[in-house]
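worker-03 picked up job from queue 'complexes'. Input manifest follows; two sequence lines, order preserved.
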Amino acid sequence: MTYVYYTLICLTLIVFQTSVVPCLMPSHFFYDALIPFIAYLGVFQPGYGSFAFSLVLGLIMDGLSGGAFGVYLATYLWLYAGVRLLGKIFRLRNGGVLLIILVLGVCLENAVFWGSILMSRQGVRMYWFPIQSIGLQVLWTALAGLILIRIFETLQKVWNQWMRAFRT
Amino acid sequence: MIGGVLILITISIIALSMTSRRHITEEPGQIAISFIPPFQEILTHLTNAVQDVWRHYFALVRTAHENDQLRRALALSVEESRKCREVELANHRLRNLLNFKDLEAFDVLAAEVIGRDPSIWFKTIVIDKGKADGVTKGLPVVNAQGIVGQVISAGNRYAKVLLLTDPASAADALIQRSRSRGVVKGNAAPDCLFDYAVSNDDIQIGDWVISSGLDGVYPKGLGIGRVSRLMRPSDDLFQEVIVSPSVDFEKIEEVLIILNPGNSGEEPIP
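worker-03 finished. Artifact:
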């Protein structure tokens, strides 16, 4: 039943950030809301199931995106693997550490995307626009990232309670 | 664990370097393009409905003031309209004289934008028309302002369009005034580059850039944008030309897909 919860959250996030956010604000004002979800899976729900979910999410986003196939997949898998690796060294449930992970996740995603563009095309000229945009994304992460993770956590607890009540 | 991560990173880099040189979204991408867009469509309609309610009912405070302004503007517009009608008739006569062909010469299909790529690096939109409506990979997509992009993947009811501002996009183009040729490319920024413009080409800020029709994708004469910045390095063969697209990609809601781009229209009268 946890997978149903994951599916609902993923679907909501994907549709929200591809259909609703662009209507409300310019695309460079917001960041990939799936990054906090991948971090959440890595920190709070480790296991093969959440790894498989990160993989599926990457495939879906690659299908919807215009980038080289595999950029989202690589980002989400690296982020998941990185979070699991860091989990062996640090106590990741701490808010400060989580925030750093989210900011690093946003930077990692932008680095992978930029790298794939550089690999695919010679002579791409970079202006200030992407740097400003990454700055805004980091700011959004700092403001909303932790809140999103707490929302995922709370919703999962509520979901689990519902499921237990449903079974009994 | 560390070994596993290293293997994962190595495989990813190799796979990315292979896929980034060529779009292979056709097969795996079909899955996402088939089952996510229905949800995007529902939510887009819901968002638009909420925005409509907001605009029409909750923003009435400004309406009375706007009404006065609009009445004054209307009086001016009636006079302008009469003049425009005269110009339109003259234009129609001249077009017939020159055997002019524009978008009317093409079979176009209107589509609504229901989703966008959330990333700043890649610029794609999802539209609510697909193979069932005659949309196939490679068709040009335009709107009233000019070129929007090209269909890169088509599902049965939905299709994905690569916007002109995407780094993977390119269109053969002309400076309308001086006929200088170049290639307009996306650049991971709101503006595009006009590449391969030779240093001594006559290009000025404000010049219109139009499609040349030589790339086999976009028909000749479609608007791309205006030259917004110029840099002429003294020691370089080419000059750097930045083009501001005429299409507002952030606010794009409807597009037209040209179903028979082979029927190339002639270039509009400057």
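worker-03 released lock.
Chain A has a mean pLDDT of 84.
The radius of gyration of chain A is 16 Å.
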